[in-house]
């Protein structure tokens, strides 16, 4: 799992109880997963097809820094399936896990699925620099 991106929990990210709003974290997961998939496939014409099991494990609060760990679970002919773990940067406590996030590579003109040309082995071999 590569932890590549971080966000600061701000006041407008909170729910009525003062913790990170679940909808906000799902928005962030979709965006972070798209960026990761686009970088892995070296393609930007991707659409979210599916987000499977989502498990909220703990809360995050204003001022917390959360980080996003992403990994490739599978690669199909036109799709890529990821797993995302969101955790507190300081404590390393898991906040949320989103599994089976599927993106489909599409032709930008026809919007039809298009082969991306990568295998799981190709994607596993990509070396990623992680921030300190």
Can you give keywords for this protein?
19% helix, alpha+beta, Thiol Ester Dehydrase, Chain A, 132 residues, six-stranded antiparallel sheet
Summarize the structure.
The chain has 132 residues and is an alpha+beta fold. Helix content is 19%, strand content 37%.
Q: What does this molecule look like?
A:
- By secondary structure, the protein is an alpha+beta fold.
- The chain has a single domain, classed as Hotdog Thioesterase (Thiol Ester Dehydrase, Chain A).
- Helix content is 19%, strand content 37%.
- The chain is built from two helices and six strands; from the N terminus they run E-H-E-E-E-E-E-H.
- A hairpin with a 5-residue loop joins strand 5 and strand 6.
- The longest helix has 20 residues.
Helix amount, in percent? 10-25%
The number of domains: 1
* pLDDT < 50 stretches: none
What structural class do helix, strand and pairing data support?
alpha+beta
Number of strands: 6
GO cellular component, one term: cytosol
Organism: Pseudidiomarina taiwanensis
GO molecular function, one term: long-chain fatty acyl-CoA hydrolase activity
InterPro entries: Cytosol_ACT, HOTDOG_ACOT, HotDog_dom_sf, Thioestr_dom
What is the strand and helix layout of this fold?
Layout: E1 2-8, H1 22-41, E2 46-51, E3 54-56, E4 65-75, E5 79-88, E6 94-105, H2 120-124
Antiparallel strand pairs: 1-4, 2-6, 3-6, 4-5, 5-6
